[in-house]
Amino acid sequence: MNDEQQDSLEVHVLETAISSFRSIKALGDGALSQLYEDGVKWVPDNESNSIALIVKHIAGNMLSRWTDFLTSDGEKPNRNRDDEFVDDIKDLTHLKAIWETGWSVLLHTLESLQPEDLLRNVTIRSQDHTVIQAILRQISHYGYHVGQIVYAAKAHKSASWQTLSIAKGGSGKFNENMMQK
Q: For the chain, how many helices (H) and strands (E)?
């Protein structure tokens, strides 16, 4: 692979990562936009986390991982992960502010990375990762938790849920529309 191809690949990896994170955020935004106050604290059983706690955890993780991303361990000394599972969320507005703050830090950091940063080493809990590994780790982590948010929101909303993807029974029509583009 020549230098031009390498540069192109690195740019593509960064653009794809940013796009993936934005897609994950959009799913979460879509779920949160359908909820009222009671929905963010709803749980299907006593062992489950509410949407509020999942959002609080994701945001705490984002602040820890993406603040000073290239220069300090991703597990910041001031992070109290256990506290992320204590429900002190005041209301839906407070929850959405926490959500947006985490995403803002993540996206700002990603957008400031340069292609040549991708193979640099960063640490998370004292373990070395390339920047690419750290990015992929977080795409997986946030995708997992946003999936939980969507599932819980859908379960809570039941029949009034507005799908965020292809509606049941709508795959044929969706595929037909895609093929016409």
A: 6, 2
Q: For 146, list phi and psi in degrees, rounded to 5.
A: -65, -35
Rounded to two decimals, the pTM is 0.93
CA separation for the pair 102, 109 (Å, rounded): 11
Using left for φ > 0, alpha for ψ between -120 and 50, and beta otherwise, residue 126 falls in left
Say which residues have a Cβ less than 8 Å from residue 11's Cβ, sequence separation at least 6.
115
Buried b (16+ CB within 10 A) or exposed e, 96-126: bebbeebbebbbebbeebebebbeeebebee
Measured in degrees and rounded to the nearest 5, phi and psi for residue 103 equal: -65, -35
SS3 assignment, position 124: strand
Task: Give CA–CA dist 168/170, Å, rounded.
Answer: 5
**Tens digit of each residue's pLDDT (9 = 90 or more) over 22-67:** 999 999 999 999 999 899 999 999 999 999 999 999 999 999 999 9
Mark 132-160 as b/e (b = at least 16 C-beta within 10 Å).
bbbbeebbebbeebbebbbebbbebbeee
Separation CA 181–CA 175 (nearest Å) = 10
